[in-house]
C-alpha cells in the first residue's frame, strides 16, 4: 500500500471551499484518505515535510504536488508562511524561471480553511496569518512539457522531472527533513506495462488499487534538487566498477524507441567509468545511475550527485558498430564520459561561490573554464585512455575542437575567464553576433586545458599532468566533512604553481586564462609528438548562408568582411546576383570575373540593392592533427598517469 500518512483528509478541503473547481478534476486523490493511517517505514519516521507528486493528469502535462507539514516542525519568523522555487538548476547557468509553470498555490489548515498564496517575488509565494499550530497542506499544479534535461516532462508514456522545478521550499526550512512520494496512476501503468523507476535515490514501492507509489529515501528538502527521476518503459543494463576491493554498482536506463546494441554499450561505458576510477583512486558515490532519453535529434546532459540525465539522438546509439566506434556513437560516449566526470569535477570539487548557492539568483564565477573546459578536454581523451577509441579517432576529435576555436572570431576579444563570468548573459543566449564577440568556455576551455596539460608535462619534466591537478583537489574534498571542496583562483594557483612553478603558471594564466593571446597549440603539441598541419581557408564574402527556395538567407557575417562592408546584414535574403537567381555556387564564383556585383536582397519585406566589391577574403586557420613521434615523452603516452 502507498503510505501517505502526512496528507490531511482531502474530503474536508473539498467540502469547505467553493473555489476549488480545478482541483475537483483530480478525483483519484481520494486514495489518500484510505491510506492515511497506515504505518510508516522506519526511514519515514519524524520527517518534517512530505511531498506527494501525483501524475494522474500526466496526459495534460500536469503534476499535482501536495506538500504537508506540521507548523510545530518548521521554523517561522512570524505568523505567515513563505514558499519559494529555484530560478535555475545547478550545472546549467541560465535563469530559467521555473515558477512560470506553477498555476496557483493553495494552502489549507486543519479546519479545512483555504488560503490562496500571494506573490512577493517572481518565485515566492506568501501566506499571511495562516495559523499558529496544526498541520498545513499545500496543493499546486506544475505544467511539465520541456523535453530537455533541465526541467520536467510528463505525458501518457514518460514521467521525468528535476525537483528544482517541482518542489517548493519552506523558507528557513530548506534543511528540514523531507520525504518525496511519487504516485503513478493505474491508467499510466496499464498503458506502459513493464515501466520502471530510474533515480539515484533508493525507494520503497507500494501497490494500491489506484496505482503504485514510490517513496524516495528521506533527505534534507533542498538535497532532493540533485536527484532527478524518470519513470516509464526503459531498457536497463548494469555493470560494476572496481574500486580497491569493492565493486560499485552502476545502472544504465534508456527510454524511448531504439535498437541499440546494449552489450556493446555496456562494455564501452564500463571501460570509461573504470578508467576514471583508476586514475582518481576511487569514486565519490556508493552507486551511479545513467538516465538516457532517446529522440530523433535532441542532445544534452546534466550532472547530478550520483546520476546524470542525458538526451540523445537514437542514431548516436550503437547499432552494428565496428571495433572503432562511428563518429555518432563516439559523440554519445563522449557525453557519457563528460557527465560522469562531473561527479568528481563539479559535484565534489566546485567553484567556492557555488558551495551553498540557493539557486535563486545568479552566482558568478570566472572558473567555469576549469570545470567545463577541463571536462570537455578530458571527456574525449578518456575515450582514448580507456581503449574505447584509437588514436586516429581521437585526433579527429581534437582537430574538430581546434578548428571550431579558429572559426570563432570572439576568441580575440573575450578570455575564458570572462566567458565563465558572463555565462548568464551570453553562452546560453547566443545570437548572430556571438561568434564575433565571445568565446565558449567549453570549446576554448578544452584547448586551454590541453595547453595546460602539455605545459605541466613540459615544466615538471614529465612528472605532472592535468589529472594530477584534478586529483589534488579531489583529495582535498575527501578530507572535508561534507566531501566537497570550493575552488578559488587563489587555491587553483597554489596547486598548479606547486607542479609547474609559479612563474610559468603566472605567464600561462595572464596570457591564456585572463588574456586573449592565441593559444600555442602548434608549438606545444609539436613538443610532445603531434603535428598540426595548418592551412588557410577563406570565404570570399565572409558570411554563411542557408539556401532554400526563397534565396540565400544570411545567418552570420564576419566583422570587416566584404559582405558587411557592402551593407548586407544578418537575416537578409539574397535573391539575385547581377540579375541571376542567387545560389550557393553563384556566391562562390560571383567575384571571380568581376570587380563588383549588384546584389538584390529582401530585408524583412523590403527589396534592397547592394554593390559588393572585391576585397580581401575572410581567412581562417584550419588544421589537422597527426602523430610525428611516440617517444617516452609523448603526449599520448599514458603509463605515467597510472602511477601510484
TrEMBL record:
The keyword Hydrolase applies. The keyword Hydrolase applies. One of its GO terms (biological process) is proteolysis. Keywords: Hydrolase, Protease. Residues 530-606 form the PDZ domain. One of its GO terms (molecular function) is peptidase activity. This is Predicted protease with the C-terminal PDZ domain. The lineage of its organism: Bacteria, Pseudomonadati, Pseudomonadota, Gammaproteobacteria, Moraxellales.
Amino acid at each position: 500500500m502507498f503510505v501517505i500518512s502526512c496528507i490531511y483528509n482531502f474530503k474536508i478541503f473539498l467540502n469547505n471551499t467553493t473555489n476549488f473547481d480545478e482541483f475537483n478534476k483530480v478525483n483519484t486523490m481520494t486514495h489518500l484518505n484510505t491510506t492515511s493511517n497506515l504505518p510508516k517505514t522506519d526511514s519515514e519516521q519524524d520527517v518534517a515535510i512530505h511531498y506527494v507528486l501525483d501524475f494522474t493528469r500526466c496526459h495534460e502535462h500536469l503534476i499535482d504536488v501536495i506538500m504537508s507539514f506540521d507548523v510545530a516542525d518548521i521554523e517561522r519568523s512570524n505568523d505567515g508562511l513563505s514558499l519559494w522555487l529555484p530560478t535555475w538548476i545547478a550545472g546549467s547557468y541560465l535563469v530559467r524561471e521555473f515558477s512560470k509553470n506553477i498555476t496557483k498555490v493553495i494552502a489549507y489548515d486543519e479546519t479545512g480553511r483555504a488560503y490562496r498564496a500571494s506573490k512577493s517575488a517572481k518565485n515566492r509565494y506568501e501566506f499571511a496569518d495562516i495559523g499558529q499550530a496544526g498541520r498545513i497542506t499545500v496543493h499546486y499544479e506544475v505544467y511539465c512539457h520541456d523535453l530537455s534535461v533541465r526541467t520536467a516532462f510528463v505525458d501518457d508514456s514518460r514521467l521525468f522531472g528535476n525537483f528544482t522545478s517541482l518542489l517548493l521550499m519552506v523558507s528557513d526550512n530548506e534543511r528540514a527533513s523531507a520525504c518525496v512520494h511519487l504516485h503513478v496512476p493505474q491508467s499510466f501503468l496499464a498503458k506502459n506495462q513493464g515501466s520502471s523507476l530510474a533515480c539515484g535515490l533508493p525507494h520503497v514501492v507500494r501497490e494500491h488499487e489506484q496505482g503504485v507509489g514510490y517513496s524516495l529515501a528521506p533527505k534534507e528538502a533542498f538535497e532532493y534538487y540533485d536527484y532527478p527521476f524518470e519513470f516509464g518503459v526503459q531498457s536497463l543494463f548494469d555493470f560494476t566498477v572496481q574500486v580497491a576491493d569493492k565493486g560499485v554498482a552502476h545502472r544504465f536506463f534508456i527510454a524511448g524507441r531504439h535498437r541499440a546494441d546494449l552489450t556493446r554499450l555496456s562494455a564501452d561505458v564500463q571501460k570509461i567509468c573504470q578508467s576514471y576510477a583508476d586514475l582518481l583512486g576511487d569514486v565519490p558515490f556508493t552507486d551511479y545511475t545513467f538516465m538516457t532519453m532517446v529522440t530523433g535529434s535532441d542532445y544534452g546532459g546534466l550532472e547530478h550527485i550520483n546520476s546524470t540525465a542525458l538526451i540523445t539522438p537514437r542514431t548516436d546509439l550503437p547499432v552494428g558498430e565496428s571495433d572503432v566506434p562511428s563518429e555518432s556513437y563516439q559523440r554519445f560516449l563522449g557525453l557519457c564520459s563528460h557527465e560522469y566526470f562531473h561527479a568528481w569535477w563539479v559535484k565534489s570539487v566546485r567553484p567556492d561561490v557555488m558551495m551553498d548557492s540557493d539557486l535563486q539568483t545568479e552566482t558568478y564565477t570566472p572558473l567555469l573554464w576549469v570545470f567545463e573546459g577541463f571536462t570537455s578536454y578530458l571527456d574525449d581523451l578518456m575515450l582514448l585512455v580507456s581503449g574505447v577509441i584509437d588514436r586516429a579517432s581521437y585526433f579527429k576529435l581534437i582537430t574538430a575542437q581546434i578548428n571550431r576555436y579558429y572559426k570563432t572570431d570572439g576568441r580575440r576579444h573575450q578570455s575564458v575567464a570572462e566567458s565563465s563570468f558572463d555565462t548568464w548573459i551570453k553562452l546560453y543566449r547566443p545570437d548572430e553576433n556571438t561568434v564575433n564577440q565571445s568565446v565558449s568556455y567549453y570549446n576554448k576551455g578544452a584547448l586551454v586545458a590541453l595547453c595546460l596539460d602539455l605545459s605541466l608535462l613540459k615544466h615538471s619534466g614529465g612528472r605532472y599532468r592535468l589529472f594530477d591537478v584534478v586529483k589534488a583537489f579531489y583529495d582535498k574534498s575527501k578530507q572535508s566533512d561534507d566531501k566537497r571542496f570550493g575552488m578559488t583562483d587563489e587555491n587553483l594557483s597554489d596547486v598548479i604553481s606547486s607542479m609547474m612553478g609559479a612563474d610559468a603558471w603566472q605567464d600561462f594564466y595572464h596570457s591564456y586564462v585572463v588574456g586573449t593571446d592565441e593559444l600555442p597549440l602548434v608549438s606545444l603539441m609539436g613538443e610532445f609528438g603531434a603535428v598540426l598541419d595548418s592551412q588557410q581557408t577563406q570565404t570570399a564574402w565572409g558570411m554563411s548562408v542557408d539556401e532554400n527556395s526563397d534565396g540565400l538567407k544570411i545567418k552570420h557575417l564576419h566583422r570587416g568582411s566584404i559582405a558587411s562592408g557592402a551593407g548586407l546584414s544578418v537575416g537578409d535574403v539574397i535573391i539575385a546576383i547581377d540579375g541571376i537567381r542567387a545560389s550557393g555556387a553563384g556566391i562562390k564564383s560571383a567575384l571571380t570575373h568581376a570587380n563588383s556585383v549588384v546584389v538584390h536582397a529582401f530585408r524583412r519585406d523590403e527589396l534592397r540593392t547592394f554593390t559588393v566589391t572585391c576585397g580581401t577574403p575572410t581567412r581562417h586557420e584550419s588544421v589537422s592533427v597527426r602523430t610525428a613521434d611516440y617517444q617516452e615523452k609523448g603526449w599520448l603516452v599514458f603509463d605515467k598517469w597510472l602511477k601510484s
